[in-house]
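>> received
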Amino acid sequence: MILDGKALSKQIQEEIKAEVDAMLEAGQKAPHLAAILVGNDGASETYVGHKTKMCDKVGFESTLVRLPDTTTEEELLQWIDDLNNNDSIDGFIVQLPLPKHIDANKINLAIDYRKDVDGFHPINIGKMAQNLPAYLPATPYGILQLLERNGVETSGKECVVVGRSNIVGSPMSILMARNAKVGNCTVTLTHSRTQNLIEHTRRADILIVALGKPNFITADMVKEGVVIIDVGITRVEDSTKKRGFRLVGDVNYEEVAPKSSWITPVPGGVGPMTVTSLLMNTLQAAKSK
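>> returned
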């Protein structure tokens, strides 16, 4: 069965809009999300543009701060300080990747954790690890929603995560092991140094793949009935397509889908849920004031 992120994200956005309408009727202000975009990375432009469009759709206010790629680290830190202290902004993100002369860790640490709707600040990561209320990283939060709202059982299952990034793999391994409604798994976190990866992936009841390597997971690497969460998305040249390329995930969908009980498509699976999760975090930030 398909874990349809596109359909679920629309449903959640409608729920958010209903909450925003109720807030406005009660005389409260609309949630306000800001984004800082440094430079002109094509993928980042598309992503931030999509976020702004989604804000309009659910009734949020949005602010986009565009800065040239010559912006210094000190200048960016000043912008972050301004947003930290701006009471009209409920949450904000600094779009990654940043130019090489800017230390992304220093930037993440500078963001007020109460406005860190990307969920990357060490305080939010620490709270998440201790199962305390926190802003969860957007992609993992979206995956939890996909599993929970489709009634996918996780308790007692073997969950294997492929990829250990701070954005997806590592937080996902923590979340799936937590004592929570979606969680209580026995988790194995695998990565580029893992030996005999296939031994781990074949054992998985739930396989979460976030590598960025197209079609990496093949049918012989999974067991029957596995739940597949494919986070990867890569452009692959395809002359039969109008745009000259197609989007593929880290999982060979055609091979693996027949063996799976649930699977996320690419595109239309995890991707739409990431932006929706950012909106959920921003609504939470506005309500917590």
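>> The first strand starts at residue 32 and ends at 38.
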